[in-house]
Write a structure and sequence with these properties.
membrane, Prenyltransferase, transmembrane, transmembrane helix, Tetracycline Repressor, domain 2
Amino acid sequence: MKLPKQVLDFYLNSSIHVALSCYALVRITFHVFHIQYDEAMALFVFFGTIVGYNFVKYDALVRVKKKPIGNQLKIIAFLSFISLVLVGYYFFHLKRITQIVSVAIFAITALYTLPFFPNRRNARNWAGVKIYIVALCWVGATLVLPYINAEIPFTGNFFIKCIQRFVLVFVLILVFEILDLANDDPHLKTVPQTIGVKRTKILGFSLLIPFWILGILTFTFHDLIINLIMVVTLMLFILFANPNRSKYYTSFWVESVPIFWWLMIVFL
């Protein structure tokens, strides 16, 4: 069992899994807005997620804490470099406006990681804002970029989908914050630190209800049933979340939710 665990850990630690989740959300955006599959757009987000997440996760370890680089981290660094090259390649296949917006999203990611202002922490450590920055970046990368690259006029439906996508990512992050409660710096003021685990779960349940109801306005009956399955699944993840759960509970299972959502749309 040692080798499969090592493979799974590398798959998760290298951010391939979270990149697949973002890729799945891009494919869902294509489906919802009837956009023809755009390989450059989908793979730009996939490889961009690998680069962005690995930069966020490992920059502090190498740049600040000066930790020695092991073999796995070297492989992850090589994978990130290859992904960066591919991001550059697919970047030049996007529309100009998409390129501009993607640079803005990258700037937010950099702000999240690097302390741009003297004597200030990076945005990741700003009290109470981490969850909003991450959710906005996910919405921008997986919904806004594919939408504007398809050159579709902005409508009320677009803004409804942005709210839904933001709520989905927000709820997913709530589960992460519950599990990380024991390890997070108290100064971060995450949602569970601020209102407690029980109220955080109630908040998550409460947000999922309008998430599904908003879909009544824009989704087909088929999609509404799939979304209902999604909502029930997320409610169960929230219900059973606690700080004693294994890291795989969130880093694999919870982050698999967008992938399962996309697969249900394709095969059901």
